[in-house]
């Protein structure tokens, strides 16, 4: 593609002259060392732009960049330097949706109009939400740190000014280090006003309930006192830790959102392991306002446990001490191990107020699956 730079620039100028609004530009075949022509960054009519398998031009070529009408930007497997993405976002005054996949050192999220940021299948050392007055959704899927970074494979997620942040996930204890208002959330930290995100109503966590990383889950939940919908993906645990039974959860202390706020709780990729059952028993015994719950078993071909056997395991839970009466749905799965990959379209659909929900609950305990 590098040999065709003059033709590509000419095509882009023709598209600009025709007032193109939506553009997907992917470099095939690789390598990604082919730089994006700076002509692209001067198409003022674009409202939706997706670019893949390129290299960002140098900072000097971005000086004249301007996307006055751009509302959605996707960047996939693009070689970027620190500040490249920030620079494009800063020159997109009405940008609402930012989707990223690939490897980047760090990302500073600053944007007056940003409503949804999604980062999937990416290696990122740190993500900093600096100043986003309109940000409603921060969605992370399969995000991990670089092995060359000081914190190992962990990604540091810093939440600064995001007064409208309502949907957050998938947080992964052990892979993600959460920092709120300058304070790093660690196991055993005492909750305070400065370590809470009170605007978040929908939260998703991805955790191996039998590992030591699970010890962070109670402290994470304490940071979100107003969560009304909690969605969990259970991860297979290869090296279970000891004593992560129901007593561990009881000794973690009161969790406000569990006691007083959560109305919907779902858990996916459930395997019927004792550590998972201990969490469910604790949760059901303490969730006083819970209305709907769903347990989605992992694919029987992966677990070796049939749907009938899984149902029998769950029926043995002691419901005599459950804190409320709620609708409970138990379903199977035919998806891949770990669940299906996240789809950007799902997170950026603003008409769906809970994109993490594997099923939508309606009156009388009925539910349906979103397409």
UniProtKB/TrEMBL annotation:
Its taxonomic placement starts with: Eukaryota, Viridiplantae, Streptophyta, Embryophyta, Tracheophyta
Tell me what this protein is called: FBD domain-containing protein
Q: Which organism is it from?
A: Miscanthus lutarioriparius
What transmembrane ranges does the database entry give? none
Q: Where is the FBD domain?
A: 250-294
Q: Which superkingdom, per the lineage?
A: Eukaryota
Q: Which residues form the F-box/LRR-repeat protein 15/At3g58940/PEG3-like LRR domain?
A: 8-232
């Amino acid at each position: 593609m590098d040999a065709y730079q003059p033709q590509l620039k000419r095509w882009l100028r023709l598209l600009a002259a025709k007032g193109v609004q939506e553009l997907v530009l992917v470099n095939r075949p690789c390598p990604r060392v082919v730089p994006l022509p700076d002509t692209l960054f001067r198409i003022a009519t674009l409202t939706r732009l997706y670019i893949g398998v390129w290299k960002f031009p140098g900072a000097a070529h971005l000086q004249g960049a301007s996307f006055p009408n751009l509302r959605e930007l996707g960047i996939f497997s693009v070689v970027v330097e620190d500040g490249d993405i920030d620079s494009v976002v800063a020159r997109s005054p009405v940008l609402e949706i930012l989707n990223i996949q690939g490897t980047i050192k760090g990302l500073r999220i600053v944007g007056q109009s940003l409503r949804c940021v999604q980062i999937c299948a990416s290696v990122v050392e740190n993500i900093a939400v600096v100043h986003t007055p309109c940000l409603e959704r921060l969605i992370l899927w399969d995000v991990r740190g670089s092995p060359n970074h000081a914190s190992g494979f962990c990604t540091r997620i810093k939440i600064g000014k995001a007064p409208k942040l309502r949907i957050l996930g998938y947080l992964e204890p052990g892979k993600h280090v959460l920092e709120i208002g300058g304070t790093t959330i660690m196991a055993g930290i005492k909750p305070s006003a400065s370590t809470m995100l009170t605007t978040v109503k929908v939260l998703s966590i991805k955790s191996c309930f039998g590992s030591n990383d699970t010890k962070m889950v109670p402290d994470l939940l304490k940071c979100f006192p107003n969560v009304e919908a909690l969605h969990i993906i259970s991860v297979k645990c290869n090296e279970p830790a000891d004593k992560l039974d129901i007593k561990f959860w009881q000794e973690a202390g009161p969790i406000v959102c569990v006691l007083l706020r959560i109305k919907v709780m779902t858990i996916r990729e459930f395997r019927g392991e004792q550590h998972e059952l201990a969490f469910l028993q604790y949760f059901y015994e303490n969730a006083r306002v819970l209305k709907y719950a769903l347990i989605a078993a992992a694919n029987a071909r992966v677990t070796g446990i049939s749907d009938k056997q899984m149902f029998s395991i769950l029926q043995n839970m002691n419901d005599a001490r459950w804190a409320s009466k709620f609708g409970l749905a138990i379903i199977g799965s035919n998806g891949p191990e770990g669940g299906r990959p996240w789809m950007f379209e799902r997170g950026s659909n603003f008409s769906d107020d809970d994109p993490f929900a594997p099923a939508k609950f309606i009156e009388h305990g009925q539910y349906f699956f979103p397409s």
